[in-house]
Design goal:
By secondary structure, this protein is α+β, with helices and mostly antiparallel strands. It has 22 helices and 16 strands. Among the domains are: 57 residues, no CATH class; 76 residues, no CATH class; 124 residues, Immunoglobulin-like, CATH 2.60.40.10; 97 residues, no CATH class. Strands 8, 10, 12, 14, 15 and 16 form a 6-stranded mixed sheet that branches. Strand 5 and strand 6 form a beta hairpin. The longest helix has 28 residues. It starts with a helix and ends with a helix.
């Protein structure tokens, strides 16, 4: 049997006698693991945790109600309250039914019920729960032996005897720590004391960030501390906490993700599957980094919630338009939930005169829907639908008229993708012939033709003797040009200028008939012209 197995057997026997131990007892177990069983602090701590040994004088409220800290915190607030209340009711009722029976942990049932109330009140209140988790984590961080082997000594004399102490001293002596990391001294020191996990992390960090030494130092300290700290003060120790911290530090998290920092941190915090997801995201979404961050958050905590879609129009109706019309309608797309909204737009059927200025959604987006009726035939109704396809897991809409579909987003592995929320917005217009422009064309052309025709009619109908006019013109020898200018002008002036009179009887009647025929002809011409163009 290996020494590790011997230590596990020893702890099980110890737990059978006392399932809850003090901090000093915990340190004593670690010391025995170092000296007698040749195990590192981290190896011993993992064994104690796996065997379910309750550590510390204070009670762990998560364990009192039967939860793991990471498991409960991965839920949203409503689910946390429901789960805590359910667990409390089951245990409280069981305690009441137990009567005065002694408990194995040495408490009375009344003491146990008081503890249950304290645990419920603390875990159901988000602020109390966060403060409690912070204190609990600080207590666990301090449960390391202080008299273990020397891990690393800095040039100024500072010495680190355990991993948390090493992390703090590296921040204090950042320049010397960076030099030790990139020259391989830190890796050697960690390997010498049996901290192979951290030694391997130091080696990988140097190869991953050869030119980014500041980032490399931040990475090794974060791995040693088993937590990720953001500039705004948020601290993440679990995937769910990391998801919440990313929401509050979006740009910083984006930089850390696509530089490979987050994947490395997850890998060395026993989250290999999530680390692979982070690596795939950096490969596939280098040009769409906001989408990549949103997908990582959903993978870290599937219960964190999705973006919520809000659009400014229930439907788009251009109304009755003529073939000369051009219109634009602005459609506002907003995210009223958490995270980053993304997706695409498409028309269900192609209408040549209806176009989208953009077909992608990236955050809050202004979409311009264009109508060019000159590309459409008149006397016809046109309909299509605009499909808004986004990553809203449970889309909300401003109207029940929307058609909503839902698709499950595919698990991120080698192909990170998938949209889950569809909203369909109907688009319609009726194209009529351009009646006003046609009337203007008829009026202008009709007036021009009418002026010419009326002039001719007046000359023909109102001259007393059209033949006399021809005779007068002929007698001037105008055609042969034999007469001189004086003869011609005298005879021309002799002409009877009856053009100013209404002429012989019946002339007005004939004029009205001619004018009516003219109007009928003009409108008949434009009728067949418009019909030929498809506007009637």
């Amino acid at each position: 049997m290996s020494k590790r197995d011997d230590f596990i057997t020893f702890v099980r026997e110890f737990k059978a006698a006392s399932p809850t131990i003090s901090t000093e007892q915990y340190r004593g177990l670690l010391r025995q693991a170092n000296n007698k069983y040749e195990l590192s602090d981290n190896e011993a701590s993992e064994i104690l945790k796996d065997l379910g040994l309750n550590i510390g004088g204070a009670n762990n409220y998560f364990e009192v109600l039967g939860f793991s800290m990471e498991g409960l915190q991965s839920l949203n607030e409503d689910d946390i309250v429901d789960r805590v209340e359910e667990a409390y009711n089951v245990r409280y009722t069981a305690s009441l039914n137990a009567g005065a029976r002694p408990r194995l942990d040495g408490r009375t049932e009344e003491q146990w019920r008081d503890l249950l109330i304290q645990a419920r009140d603390t875990l159901e209140d988000s602020q109390k729960r966060e403060a409690y988790v912070a204190n609990l984590q600080r207590e666990l961080d301090n449960l390391f032996v202080e008299d273990g082997p020397l891990i690393f000594k800095f040039p100024n004399g500072d010495e680190a005897f355990n991993i948390p102490q090493l992390a703090k001293l590296m921040l204090k002596n950042s320049k010397d720590a960076t030099d030790a990391l990139y020259r391989g001294y830190l890796e050697q020191s960690l390997g010498r004391v049996g901290e192979m996990h951290f030694a391997d992390a130091a080696r990988v960090i140097v190869s991953e960030f050869p030119e980014r030494r500041e980032l490399g130092l931040k990475a090794i300290v974060s791995i040693l501390q088993r937590k990720m700290e953001f500039q705004e003060g948020q601290v993440a120790r679990t995937p769910a906490q990391l998801a919440n911290s990313i929401d509050l530090n979006w740009e910083e998290a984006k930089s850390l993700l696509f530089k490979g920092f987050i994947a490395l941190w997850l890998e060395y915090n026993q989250q290999s599957q999530l680390a692979n997801i982070a690596r795939n995201i950096t490969t596939l979404y280098g040009d769409e980094q906001d989408i990549g961050v949103e997908k990582l958050v959903q993978s870290l905590n599937p219960r964190i919630g999705h973006p919520k879609l809000h659009v400014s129009h229930e439907s788009i109706n251009f109304g009755n338009v003529d073939t000369e019309t051009q219109k634009k309608i602005q459609l506002e797309i907003k995210n009223i939930g958490r995270g980053f909204l993304y997706g695409n737009l498409q028309l269900t059927n192609d209408v040549p005169g209806i176009q989208l200025a953009t077909t992608t959604i990236r955050g809050d987006t202004l979409v311009i829907v264009k109508l060019d009726a000159s590309l459409l035939a008149s006397k016809k109704m046109y309909k299509t639908e605009l499909v808004v396809n986004t990553n809203t897991g449970d889309p909300t809409t401003p109207s029940s008229q929307y058609v909503i579909k839902a698709e499950l987003e595919s698990t991120i592995n080698t192909n990170v993708g998938g949209l889950s929320g569809d909203i369909t917005i109907p688009i319609a217009c009726y194209v009529d012939y351009p009646i006003l422009k046609s009337i203007r064309r008829v009026a202008v052309s009709g007036a021009s033709v009418a002026a010419i025709t009326i002039a001719v009619c007046l000359i023909i109908l109102l001259l007393g003797d059209a033949g006399g006019l021809a005779t007068h013109l002929t007698d001037t020898n105008f055609v042969t040009f034999d007469a001189d200018w004086t003869e011609w002008s005298d005879k021309w002036l002799w002409m009877d200028w009856t053009i100013y009179k209404f002429g012989p009887q019946g002339a007005s009647y004939r004029f009205v008939i001619a004018l009516a025929a003219l109007v009928v002809g003009i409108f008949g011409y434009w009728f067949f012209f418009l019909k030929k163009r498809g506007q009637l």
